[in-house]
Model the fold of this input.
Amino acid sequence: FLGAGGGNDIQWCFSQVKGAVDDDVAEADIISTVEFNHSGELLATGDKGGRVVIFQQEQENKTQSHSRGEYNVYSTFQSHEPEFDYLKSLEIEEKINKIRWLPQKNAAQFLLSTNDKTIKLWKISERDKRPEGYNLKEEDGRYRDPTTVTTLRVPVFRPMDLMVEASPRRIFANAHTYHINSISINSDYETYLSADDLRINLWHLEITDRSFNIVDIKPANMEELTEVITAAEFHPNSCNTFVYSSSKGTIRLCDMRASALCDRHSKLFEEPEDPSNRSFFSEIISSISDVKFSHSGRYMMTRDYLSVKIWDLNMENRPVETYQVHEYLRSKLCSLYENDCIFDKFECCWNGSDRQVEIFSIIVMTGSYNNFFRMFDRNTKRDITLEASRENNKPRTVLKPRKVCASGKRKKDEISVDSLDFNKKILHTAWHPKENIIAVATTNNLYIFQDKMN
Amino acid sequence: MLRGRRRMECTLDAQSLISISLRKIHSSRTQRGGIKLHKNLLVSYVLRNARQLYLSERYAELYRRQQHYPDGGPLLAMPACPPPAAAPPELAALPLPADTQDREARSCAAARGGAELLEVPVCAAPPELQRAPCRDSSPGFYRAAGSAGPGGGGGGSSSSAPPGLLYAAGCDFGSGGAPHCSSRTTVLDLDTHVVTTVENGYLHQDCCSQCPCCCQPAPGLASPPPTPGTKRKYYPGQEEEEEGVEEGEPGGGGVAGGPPFAPCTKRARFEEYSAEHPQDSSNISNLISIFGSGFTGLVSRQQADSEQPLNGQLCSKQALASLGAWTRAIVAF
Done:
């Protein structure tokens, strides 16, 4: 497993944990999305209560070279509020489904956050100076009596305590009938897509009153519905290319140059089902919960309930690699169906782009139950299971690999399948774009791990 | 929800899976954020799979009972069956172990579309039964016991299969012209020449509850599947309960104009079911009103209320043929 020492093996250490300590989880605090910005300096989380919390990494202290900067709260704001659709008598949840950062163009930061129906562009800006010494106004804003003004005074900016302000700059609403599951910013940095169960829309970041529908899989007769869109993403380099995954386990690659409505895919990625694995729940576990392009754009990764698959964009008929995340759950699908865990949507992520290029190490990460998360090294084909837990986690302590005992005699330090806590699930993970720093979200806590620096 | 570290028990009983699935669909209507289309679609697949297995088990059981009770009953006329409709791909049934032959029979049955879905699992049951549904549908009567008649000879291609069972569609066409679906499947054992009628009741009731041609008084109270251990006899004349349920006499043809289902009989079964599953009974009538409209009923509560005019439409052969299999699965009860 990773961490066995030598070479480029990473030794993961606990760094920080954010969030409430007590076991009683307030529903609003459940983390629903985690995303680093393009530099990795900022880390955003969204929760079920509609809030966004942004953490900022401290500047590296030259004297403390043994660890990278810590992440501290930078900004907190209420992104979405619960709404009520009176026409359909439906409540619209405020839960933040996805956050995506825009690349930084000026001093301010911009991100897109979305709930089930509405996408918002937020500007996060700093204010650390304020003007003082107005000629005609008092400090509190009241106008001075003109007769008391005898000299000309030019206001000057003086430092103040840092204030981080978040303001909604655009609201993209009323374009989705079904629940939005994905947003993805195009490599042109001008447009982005939003995907719901049946449709994908293309937006311009500046224009809120219209969007283009580019995929529509709604059948004429809803009773003929057989699949829904589960995730969508733009290609990292080709601004005309995007992919979307379906509940049937397929991925379609579309080229927007081909036609205005991309209902006909350019490529269809699908692996034939293994008939020996057929069960009542085959359709559920083949549903793809996340799709992510590699940084090069040559590969993409998909996550279904039990596995992670790496696809080469040039090969449609099967993935190039398949990694079993928790195959021991295959015999438990019935119980997982009963308790709804089988519907959990796990995400996956690639390691940072710089690492991929420089050191040619390509690792993928995804979550599991019992607060375990897994990493798969594509080069060495080794994998590791780690746990996000407050116990036994002192800063700079190397995480101990975990192992689940599927059957038979349980070895020391192994955990049997029946002991796994299915209420403790890691659905959202993120990898710093440049460093070996990862953010792992348990139900209501955010863990940050770093590799051990020597 | 699974609490912490409770030991995981796994029940693969098709019937409880169906019941769990329906409960999930029902409770999703009251969850915050509206109906989750994705989750309900996945649940409907489980429903379909469980239902197919359940029906195939029932038919296997039926066949076993036929072996034990060779005395036959009066012959029932075989009404005309619709020509094979385009097979919805979803009808590819859950394959039962080891039998690739079953697939062909299944797709054959699937090709008949519409209300003949009952035949799908039937094909998957004992291999001897495979060939039966693949014969072309043709009107006619299959006479029992004896020599002459198209049925006596074994109904064409099936004759070479002893002990064969001949399954025929139960899609009646009312004399009024508007076809509607029947819930019955009539089985002729080509070996013993015993004719059996299997009453399912639910599909018919669901789609015909408002259909004027069906004279069906009972509002979609489904005939529940027999709980394991319940003795249910399927052949005419043997069970008081069944007799009232049979529609029409032999040769009676379509249901239109025939005697309606005896509602008290259905209720008797319903009560028997509800005694075992008390919490489900209150949900079932709600569910029927949803499912009577197919999937659209799930998406919009308002649509379910305005469903009545659609039910007649649902009864049409074309509508049935175009229903996705998962919709049929939802209509299971």
Observations:
- Chain B has 13 helices and three strands.
- Residues 37-68 of chain B form the longest helix (32 residues).
